[in-house]
Amino acid sequence: MRGAECRYGGAQAYYYGAQGDGSAWLVAEHGRVVRRYAATGEPEDELLTIGGPLPLEQVRLAELGLAADGNLGSASDDQIEEWMEIAFDLAPEIAVAYGVSPFILTRETKVRGTGVLALTPDATGHRS
Fold it and tell me: What pLDDT, in 10s, does the model give residues 2-13?
């Protein structure tokens, strides 16, 4: 991601474990991280958080009666559990809100701008 948001104006990275592994997202604009969040059920998830909730996160939080700023300090255990269940599957929706989700791409998808797919360091040996 480093540099991509500067070169292209914005960049996003998403993780979605379709087998119950959770979600994570990173949104950068104009050279800075706007939001990074992980909901994978790991104790370290909270340490990865940067920035305040994105508009879609704020809507989902409000639907649960939670503070739009994402502060769960006054939330009940049930509310926190409900939020985690929603956040666990939220990456594809965040992707649609900020660009495009690979789950909805078809041959008929209209393309505007430049799409860039970056390989992770683990995929450097990958050949297409």
Answer: 555 556 678 888
- What is the C-alpha to C-alpha distance for residues 62 and 28, in angstroms, rounded to an integer? 24
Alpha carbon distance 1, 26 (integer Å) = 9
| C-alpha–C-alpha distance, residues 62 and 42, integer Å | 24
Say which residue the tokens 């991509």 belong to.
4
> Cβ distance 49 to 37 under 8 Å?
yes
DSSP class per residue in 41-52: S-GGGGGG-BSP
Q: Is 17 helix (H, G, I), strand (E, B) or coil?
A: strand
Q: Considering just the CA atoms, what is the radius of gyration of the chain in Å? A: 16
What phi and psi, each to the nearest 5 degrees, are found at residue 13?
A: -135, 140
pLDDT tens profile 40-91:
999 899 999 999 999 999 999 999 999 999 999 999 999 999 999 999 999 9
